[in-house]
Amino acid sequence: MDFKSLAKEYGTPLYVYDFDYIEKQFNSLKEAFKARKSLICYAAKANSNLSVLKHVANLGAGCDCVSIGEVKRALYAGVAKYKIIFSGVGKRDEEIQEALKEDILMINLESEEEMHRVEMIAKELNKIARISIRVNPNIDPKTHPYISTGLHENKFGVDLDSAKRMYIYAKKSAYLDPVGTHFHIGSQITDINPFKEASKVLADLVRNLKSLDIEIKFFDIGGGIGIRYKDESTIQPYDYVQAIFENLSGLDVTVTCEPGRFLVGNSGYFLTKVLYEKRNEDKRFVIVDGAMNDLIRPTLYSAYHEIELVGSNNEQISKADIVGPICESGDFFAKNIELPQTKHNDLLVIKSAGAYGFTMSSNYNTRGRAAEVALQNGKSRVIRARETFEDMIAKEVPYL
Length: 400
Ligand code: LLP
What we know:
Layout lengths: L2 H8 L3 E5 H14 L5 E6 L6 H10 L2 E4 L2 H9 L7 E3 L6 H10 L3 E4 L2 H14 L3 E6 L25 H13 L3 E7 L10 H19 L6 E3 L16 H9 L8 E4 L3 H4 L3 E12 L4 E5 L8 H5 L5 E3 L7 E7 L8 E9 L6 E4 L20 E6 L2 E6 L4 H5 L7
Parallel strand pairs: 1-16, 2-3, 2-9, 3-4, 4-5, 5-6, 6-7, 7-8, 8-9, 11-13
Antiparallel strand pairs: 1-10, 10-11, 10-15, 12-15, 13-14, 16-17
Helix pairs in contact: 2-3, 2-9, 5-6
């Protein structure tokens, strides 16, 4: 990939996404699912740029959304409404209303209280709400605690007994139609066993519900497939899908999954330029023009992202911290990595930045968010312009 030309043409800091890679990942997963009815609902939170959403929609994906904003993005980008799922632990009344009016595939309930609100709102609108229930199976996904979601100590979903009660209630309600069941136990999972265990628990639940005359049509296994940032051994799509399928015998369900990182994580590169280097007695700092407001994963989760100095043949290598210009010690991309000596305007590429990079970015320190560029069939195009100062202050009112 010609990072230098991209940086020259579009400036830095810059996000670049390889759309061909996204397509390859999507197809590998779809292929793995082919023995059964399946629906891949891309988790928009990983990267919700409209072009990315449109790209996956064109491939046949639906969307897993976690706010009405994401639902609207998905619709706007051309995702079919009957492929959109609305999840999240806390949905506002207006969000529920809009989701019902848009007639999306289903609303994923995360508490009994929420079920009653959805029922009330559906009644007001004289609609029947298709729902699924997020079950928290109390399984340890063995990932970073901040991105673990399937343990009872996490705020997500409901336990099995509550789920059963909710299904029985929903079945009787004139305004609820229980069509799906759901789990999502965490993110960046590299061990297949938690997926096996969770799908077994849910499959048993679906059988149990069947005996109560409650037919579950969508078996939603969430997202969470890990990717390689460094040297992780990751789960292959075929093994992942088999681990789920082996629990589904006798069940006629559409298997739904919600991958985010798997589809876009390794499609993304964050390009940033060296401003200067500085040293003190103990340390060498490479100060770059990107910062934690652009890519917060190293700060927030101590996440590793591979960093490469582009086109340098400088053989003077030593340890350095790669840091941004923000007034926080947490503003770093890497610590103590081996890097050749750099000079002003040298280009660094931070890899695996396609998921939870731009979507978690902010204007902290009044820094405009980076531009985003898509690469497809050997051509590049801007899919989000760089934010200007005027963009950043547009909503503010400086008068008394
Ligand atoms: N479905 C649900 C209900 C989710 O909550 C998530 C992610 C996904 C699907 C997609 O998970 P994935 O396939 O991308 O692992 N910001 C963190 C990750 C947070 C994940 C939140 N939920 C990070 O940068 O690692």
